[in-house]
Amino acid sequence: MADNITSSSTWPRWFATLGCGFMIALIPAPEGVTREAWRLLAIFIATIVGSIIGPLSGSAMVLLGVIATVVFGALKPADALKGYSEPVVWLVLAAFFLSCAMIKTGLGRRVALLFIRAIGRKTIGLGYALVGTDFILASMIPSNGARNGGVILPIAKSVSETYGSRPDDGTADRFGAFLVNLLYQCDVIICATFITGQASNFIIQDQIARHTGVQITYAGWFVAAIVPSLISLTLAPLVIYKLFPPGIKETPEASTFASAELEKLGPMSANEKLTLLVLVSVVVLWITKDYLHSIDTAIVALLGICVLLTLRVLEWNDLMGSREAWSVFIWYGGLVNMAAALGSTGLTKIFADSVAGFTGGMTWAAALAVLLLIYFYSHYLFASITAHVLAMLIPFLAVSLAVGAPTGLTILLLAYFSNLNAGLTHYGTTPAPIYFGTGYIGQGRWWKTGLIVSVINIAVWAGIGSIWWKLLGWW
After folding, report:
1. Mind listing the pLDDT tens digit for each residue in 406-443?
2. Domain final residue pick, 323, 353, 388
3. Are residues 105 and 249 both part of a single domain?
4. What residues contact residue 307 under an 8 Å CB cut-off, 6+ apart?
């Protein structure tokens, strides 16, 4: 049962949350910063802290923060609530609805089973089969929680149990621990590969466009990511296989299991075909925006939902029953708006000027490296990509550009690192607690794997990625 406000374990979290806000509010505002802007900063920080330590759910904390901005005079009511009219917030909501169709029709499960049947005869091949499933689905489904929790993890658990590997009887290392470890670390790489890899990427795209004028398209994001992504997706599983080898190396039964499950599913249903057609059409319209049409990406996604409703693939109750989608809508709308309001106060520039002083005398390359490492590993302090991005992306972008780093290079590194750093912990992004909750891996191994893979990812994306982006003309 969730803690209530009188619970002894909840009070310290409330004190920490409110204390952070009051401490900021009591500090005199810097010269040139209004009292309203300073109060907004205090409320924003308290909201971020509350979403991390959790006296209430993250979305509830954001709703409290939105109301607090009005009660304490930081924003007017219309300004406090206008985040919920932002297209990017509706795009995130539509992303979750699209994932409902994928799960409801069984399309995602079918894709996974086809991969397993094709290359799942060895343990490492089975891992790559499920990673391949995530890769394909991520090109269309922006909810990494839905992809992993609704499609990939149930199959991974079924196959693990088929091989007698369970989390609670000493057999976890036989198979399941390796698979869970591999799938999560590869998921964060896949999240970085597509702008649809996870919902916060749309926030990243929006924030970058607002502050630099650079618009990263679906195709531009993918083309820049594909080379470092494929290298990371090749190396990470091999390193995990070497460091934490599974007890079972051959998995012929997995292919048999997939074949049997596909036989039960039968031929693709009409609803599966319609869902696939709509998803592909949505992606094509995203890719061709500004080339063949000018329809906003959020409207394209919502159009896809309307088509699925019209064809009765989805019912209205499916959308109303998606509690996660509406919870994320509250979360994104509130936080995106507070971050945007803060950006217009001049506080970001003050922060950038202050931090830039610490990198004085460094070359832009050295300064950028230091800033990127701080940005990457500060994710240990965050329980979501969204919170981290909205709290730190624009300030670190401003500082990096202030030291002379190339705009394109800085944008791509921060955008991709915002995804890759989620692999550090068992709470880094939505699928993390889902996988960790299976019990196959303890926190020690999880964090050790995350740290090792983070070094690989940083080297690949900052090294090989930078060369690739130079060839593409990004900097």
Report:
1. 999 999 999 999 999 999 998 889 889 889 888 999 98
2. 323
3. yes
4. 278
**416 part of a folded domain:** no
The answer to whether the beta carbons of residues 47 and 331 sit under 8 Å apart is: no
Render pLDDT for 207-245 as a digit per residue (tens, 0 to 9). 999 889 999 999 999 999 999 999 999 999 999 999 889
The answer to whether residues 102 and 149 touch, using CB atoms and an 8 Å cutoff, is no
Whether residue 350 is contained in a domain is answered as no
The percent of the chain in helix, strand and coil, each rounded to the nearest 5, is 75, 0, 25
Residue 149, domain extent: 87-323
Phi, psi (degrees; rounded to nearest 5) at 314: -110, 145
User: Count of residues for the chain?
Assistant: 475
Same domain, 222 and 277: yes
Residues 136 and 274 in one domain: yes
CA torsion sign for 290, 475, 204, 344 is negative
Q: What is the mean pLDDT of residues 201-205?
A: 94
pLDDT averaged over every residue in the chain:
90
What tokens were used for 226? 């594909």
What is the number of structural domains in the chain?
2
Give the burial class of 1: count Cβ atoms within 10 A of its Cβ; 0-12 exposed, 13-18 middle, 19 or more buried.
exposed
Could you tell me if 141 and 229 lie in one domain? yes
Q: Which two tokens stand for residue 329?
A: 């809508």
